[in-house]
Amino acid sequence: MRISQLVEESGVPLATVKYYLREGLLPPGTATTATQADYSEQHLHRLRVIRALTGAAGLPVQRARAVLALIDAPDGDLFESLGRAVAALPPYAGVDPDGDYPRARAVIERLGQLFDPQYAAVAQLEHALKAAEDAGLPISDERIEAYGRHLHAIAEFDLGQMPSAAAASDAAAGSAAIEYAVLGTALYEPVILAMRRLAHQDVAAGILEGGHD
Amino acid sequence: MRISQLVEESGVPLATVKYYLREGLLPPGTATTATQADYSEQHLHRLRVIRALTGAAGLPVQRARAVLALIDAPDGDLFESLGRAVAALPPYAGVDPDGDYPRARAVIERLGQLFDPQYAAVAQLEHALKAAEDAGLPISDERIEAYGRHLHAIAEFDLGQMPSAAAASDAAAGSAAIEYAVLGTALYEPVILAMRRLAHQDVAAGILEGGHD
């Protein structure tokens, strides 16, 4: 398709498409004449991914480029590529590999999961636990266990939907898995938070009789 | 206690404490001399709440004031006060009471919950569902059901921990419930997201054999 059609089908303005081409986020089309190029369904797909990363996920262009590089060429260790790709998403808590994350460590060990301070989410968890503690609402063991059980079940569902997770040695499957992990994390987190707030309202309506009609 | 002690115990700088006093977020102390006032444990507690709202929860001062007003004087309908308080938290999707939220409505009805477009989280959910759809990762019914089941269980746990939810007619209990709902939403959401990401890593490590040592 021509670039005008790419613009039309994606809904991304021409100036933005050209910017992505210049920045190397979107690969060039196949030149058909000196001034025209042909774009494929892959370009359309890539545009959607870029929009999700820089829009909904809120990534700066530099970080989006790093994620796209991992999608395009996952290295041999898919587990590590997945971790690096998801770590490019906000919030940026700042990982200190030698860091001591006492609150996060206690939670992770209580859940029977592996504590590895190189996981970006460890610093993220430490930061969140400390903020709750500072506000006088530290997370109880009971809450950790309740949250942990249900979030683990959600994670199992998520991974079960990961494209071709089993064929991890295949590069194309690796790319699809990384793309799914990044977009699924960025796009489904807001869904999860909204659904929890709505569930609160549903439960509260049941408890506070007369408080709702 | 003197204001200097309030500063020391809370860790909030003097200039900030004075700013909160000027802005009416922190009620004045009891004057002991023309230039000195006495502050109580309640002030210390209130300072922690203000810090959580304006810091971790990221509220602008105006919105923090609105939440504090609800905590101080919940109106007769606790359910509505809870909803208004939580709606003051980001993200701000912009509620349109006459709005048509087709994606959110379908999800809420599928979960058997009440669809009320006045709930702020409805617009939030619609926005999140649309972003996922635009990126080519629409949420399947199966995913909605899996997420919905576990998030409802988390919400039941959360509400079960709400202080004196049963004594909702009592104003002090109402205040405590609103404070818990707002702070619990703002402070535990980041914990939930970090825990889900860690659960992903745990599940992925199990699936991708050899990908993790």
How many DSSP helices of chain A?
9
Question: Whole-number average pLDDT of chain A?
Answer: 89
- Basic shape of chain A: elongated
Q: Which sequence of strands runs across the widest sheet of chain A?
A: 1-2
Biggest sheet features of chain A: 2 strands, antiparallel
The H/E string of chain A reads HHEEHHHHHHH
Number of domains of chain A: 2
Determine the most extensive contact between two protein chains.
A-B, 83 and 82 residues
What's the oligomerization state?
homodimer
The helix/strand class of chain A is: mainly alpha
Distance between the termini of chain A: 54 Å
| Weakly predicted, low-confidence segments of chain A | none
Radius of gyration of chain A: 21 Å
Protein name (chains A, B): MerR family transcriptional regulator
GO molecular function, one term (chains A, B): DNA-binding transcription factor activity
Domain HTH merR-type (chains A, B): 1-70
Keywords (chains A, B): DNA-binding
Structure, briefly:
Two copies of one chain form a homodimer. Chain A has 213 residues and is mostly helical. The first copy, chain A, is built from nine helices and two strands.
How would you describe what is shown here?
Two copies of one chain form a homodimer. The first copy, chain A, is 64% helix and 2% strand. With 213 residues, chain A is mainly α. Chain A folds into two domains: 1-56, Orthogonal Bundle (Multidrug-efflux Transporter Regulator, Chain: A, Domain 2), CATH 1.10.1660; 75-207, no CATH class. In chain A, strands 1-2 form a two-stranded antiparallel ribbon. The first copy, chain A, is elongated, with a radius of gyration of 21 Å. The mean pLDDT of chain A is 89. The interface between A and B is large, with 83 and 82 residues.
